[in-house]
């Protein structure tokens, strides 16, 4: 029976097609009584039976008064969602094992809304929802946390927006499958492995020392971010003036990161090593290229280049 319920739920969830925006209206808002609402209905039935048996006019009045309040509550609960519009901002990539943030924008064209919750479907209960109060003719932003345990391109999960305002007797909700994917990069290897030796690199210690130090042509005023090795400490000690030696920066040879050069039995471990190497090259601003699975990312450096390389690793299928 449990398997049948799961299959029916999956079939129902599959009916929701991905879309850029979700408009809540009469056709996509569902409403059912909560446990408290079911208990309230049972109480009304007991009150009605007692009033009939004992011919209590005040009992009839109380029963129908409470029933009218419950019907009004159902209408208010449904209206708390009707007319809202949901939009998802671009989802930032993350490394496997981390969490990605889903930033949602809720637009309200009408009166103010109270007790609007949003969460992932399937959920871990009401505590997993993020709640918001949306002002009249206003907008509100909510952030959900999406766990990303495995690398790759994953479709965005089904989202649920719901309300139990004002009395918690009814639960109104709607489901939305946002269009888009979340890119999960491989997790970098820890501890960070040393970079591979570039092909044709010189092993002469004097050449390496000159490459590290660079050639200085003069001095200039010190600027924030200058390396301590460039500061003219002797001049600072004599005159108290902060100046930096100016000259050509050391240029390391471009480095090709190839999946074929990574040792290891598992493909995930090899991809993690490439990820760690790419991050290390970016921190040192060393130009690097990437080859994996017949695809190639040309030699470059920078945030855009890093994102392209890590995306190539995330999409690797072997």
Automatic annotation (TrEMBL):
<protein>
    <submittedName>
        <fullName>DUF58 domain-containing protein</fullName>
    </submittedName>
</protein>
<feature type="transmembrane region" description="Helical">
    <location>
        <begin position="29"/>
        <end position="52"/>
    </location>
</feature>
<keyword id="KW-1133">Transmembrane helix</keyword>
<keyword id="KW-0472">Membrane</keyword>
<keyword id="KW-0812">Transmembrane</keyword>
<feature type="compositionally biased region" description="Basic and acidic residues">
    <location>
        <begin position="205"/>
        <end position="221"/>
    </location>
</feature>
<feature type="region of interest" description="Disordered">
    <location>
        <begin position="187"/>
        <end position="221"/>
    </location>
</feature>
């Amino acid at each position: 029976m449990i398997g049948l319920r799961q299959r029916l739920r999956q079939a129902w969830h599959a009916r929701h097609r991905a879309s850029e925006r979700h408009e809540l209206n009469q056709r996509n808002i569902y409403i059912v009584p909560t446990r408290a609402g079911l208990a309230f209905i049972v109480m009304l039935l007991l009150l009605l039976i007692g009033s009939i048996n004992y011919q209590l006019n005040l009992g009839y009045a109380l029963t129908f008064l409470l029933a009218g309040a419950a019907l009004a509550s159902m209408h208010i609960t449904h209206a708390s969602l009707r007319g809202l519009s949901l939009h998802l901002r671009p989802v930032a990539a993350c490394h496997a094992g981390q969490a990605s943030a889903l930033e949602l924008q809720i637009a309200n064209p009408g009166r103010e809304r109270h007790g609007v919750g949003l969460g992932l479907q399937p959920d871990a209960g009401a505590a997993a929802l993020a709640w918001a109060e949306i002002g009249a003719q206003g907008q509100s932003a909510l952030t959900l946390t999406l766990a990303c345990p495995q690398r790759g391109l994953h479709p965005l999960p089904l989202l649920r927006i719901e309300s139990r305002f004002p009395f918690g007797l009814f639960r109104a909700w709607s489901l939305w499958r946002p269009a888009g994917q979340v890119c999960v990069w491989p997790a970098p290897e820890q501890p960070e492995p040393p970079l591979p030796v570039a092909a044709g690199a010189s092993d002469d210690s004097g050449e390496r020392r000159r490459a590290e130090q660079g050639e200085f042509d003069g001095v200039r005023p010190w600027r924030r971010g200058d390396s301590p090795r460039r500061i003219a400490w002797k001049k600072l000690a004599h005159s108290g003036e902060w100046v930096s030696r100016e000259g050509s920066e050391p240029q390391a040879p471009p480095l090709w990161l190839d999946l074929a050069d990574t040792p290891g039995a598992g493909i995930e471990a090899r991809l993690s090593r490439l990820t760690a190497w790419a991050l290390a090259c970016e921190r040192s601003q060393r130009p690097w290229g990437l080859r994996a699975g017949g695809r190639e990312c040309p030699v470059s450096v920078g945030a855009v280049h890093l994102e392209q390389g890590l995306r190539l690793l995330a999409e690797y299928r072997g």
